[in-house]
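Please decode residue identities from the backbone states below.
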């Protein structure tokens, strides 16, 4: 084959025979692979255009090896593009017409640029014109100067060869075949008996041989009729193709019109639905604006409350720390005071009551440490622990302590005098603190025995809770006792 035919075949295999509109072709990561394939293809075209002279012939093996080299590229092995098998455009005949729909399908299938300028005229283009336009537009995309012209010249040459074949066929039809001369048949002699043999007849005048007819020549009218017949056949084929195309186009038009009516109805329904959705959306927007305003106010209130909570928390923490320090200091003072008071009362030192006071008052209870006559039992930690627990339960169940606390509460409830009320409040505070210190001293001794089992150096008992003499005097005045 000539080099132009080899380039066309390679173009059909590598470009027209490949689907260039796959999903993987559109990915940016595959563009480098596609560019590498383009460079390899261009290098092969350069081999045909520059190294081979015009009109030179190439072998089928060279074209096959070039195509094999292209198919071994990663663009095919990784299945980035796919091959088609109808790239030679074999379905329509060479002289048939190409419709706009078929043009669009082929361009979409083979991934080649579309050219609807071919259909600006009334008649559709023929297959050679269609292929030549595709070749021209595709090779322009590859920036190969002169290659598209050579391919186009090759296609025109093939078209001229087809026209020459048609002319030769017309000439053959113009020459009519002459009638072959028939040989004269010899007369068959009749059978006769041997007895009656007639003598041979001698003709009077010998017959002249018939003249052989000359070959008839084709007249101009027959030639014109043959050409007209061929033209009529070609026109009939074209008319049939156009009629089929028009019929298909009419059917497609009817279907398209029906689909268009259906789409119009769907569009009307969608418009109504969109209007309803717009109304709903407007209502949602208003609600959203109200919700945003409400959320803004709530956030401001929350921020204000958070600041107040932080301030209150700081103030509360300060007050708690201050109260903790005061309570700790008070407990230390109260404990020291209670210890000294219990020691003084244990020695029998009591103060006298003033003459203005009542004649009788409550004598506070002075508890004693657990003792026993048995020395072994006195050294037993379990027995001592049990005695301390008994002292704790006795204090918690002491009715006198509960009555004295109720006396303070009753005086606070009925008293109106500020001085007496302050005295009762102080008495309540002192009574509760003394009770707490007394219980703490017992619990500390119990805890020490439980942890260590040591009963030596036990913590002395604190003052037993009791009412002061001054409280008894004021209570007697208000209660009349």
């Amino acid at each position: 084959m000539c080099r132009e035919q080899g380039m066309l075949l390679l173009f059909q295999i590598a470009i027209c025979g490949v689907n260039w509109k796959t999903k993987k072709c559109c990915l940016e990561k595959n563009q480098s692979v596609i560019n590498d394939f383009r460079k390899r293809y261009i290098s092969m075209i350069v081999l045909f255009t520059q190294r081979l002279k015009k009109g030179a012939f190439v072998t089928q093996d060279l074209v096959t090896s070039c195509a094999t080299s292209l198919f071994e590229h990663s663009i095919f092995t990784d299945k980035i593009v796919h091959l088609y098998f109808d790239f030679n455009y074999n379905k329509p005949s060479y002289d048939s017409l190409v419709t706009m729909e078929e043009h669009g399908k082929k361009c979409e299938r083979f991934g080649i640029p579309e050219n609807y300028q071919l259909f600006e005229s009334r008649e559709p283009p023929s297959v050679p014109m269609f292929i030549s336009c595709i070749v021209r537009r595709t090779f322009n995309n590859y920036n190969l100067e002169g290659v598209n012209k050579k391919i186009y010249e090759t296609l025109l040459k093939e078209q001229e060869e087809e026209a020459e074949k048609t002319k030769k066929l017309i000439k053959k039809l113009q020459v009519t075949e002459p009638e072959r001369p028939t040989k004269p048949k010899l007369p068959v002699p009749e059978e006769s008996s041997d007895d009656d043999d007639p003598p041979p007849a001698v003709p009077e005048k010998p017959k002249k041989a018939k003249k052989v007819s000359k070959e008839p020549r084709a007249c101009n009218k027959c030639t014109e009729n043959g050409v007209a017949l061929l033209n009529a056949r070609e026109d009939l084929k074209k008319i049939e193709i156009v009629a089929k195309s028009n019929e298909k186009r009419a059917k497609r038009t009817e279907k398209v019109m029906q689909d268009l009516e259906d789409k119009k109805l769907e569009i009307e329904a969608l418009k109504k639905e969109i209007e309803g959705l717009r109304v709903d959306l407007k209502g949602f927007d208003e609600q959203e604006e109200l919700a945003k305003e409400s959320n803004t106010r709530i956030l401001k209130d929350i921020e204000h409350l958070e600041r107040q909570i932080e301030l209150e928390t700081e103030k509360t923490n300060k007050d708690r720390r201050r109260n903790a320090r005061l309570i700790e200091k008070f407990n230390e003072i109260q404990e020291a005071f209670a210890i000294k008071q219990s020691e003084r009362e244990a020695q029998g030192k009591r103060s006298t009551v003033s003459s203005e006071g009542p004649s009788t008052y409550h004598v506070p209870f002075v508890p004693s440490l657990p003792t026993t006559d048995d020395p072994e039992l006195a050294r037993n930690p379990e027995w001592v622990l049990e005695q301390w627990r008994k002292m704790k339960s006795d204090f918690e169940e002491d009715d006198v302590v509960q009555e004295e606390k109720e006396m303070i509460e009753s005086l606070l409830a009925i008293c109106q005098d500020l001085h007496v009320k302050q005295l009762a409040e102080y008495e309540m505070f002192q009574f509760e603190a003394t009770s707490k210190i007394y219980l703490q001293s017992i619990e500390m001794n119990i805890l020490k025995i439980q942890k260590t089992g040591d009963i030596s150096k036990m913590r002395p008992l604190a003052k037993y809770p009791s009412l002061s003499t001054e409280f008894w005097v004021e209570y007697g005045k208000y209660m009349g006792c």
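Observation: The longest helix spans residues 220-346.
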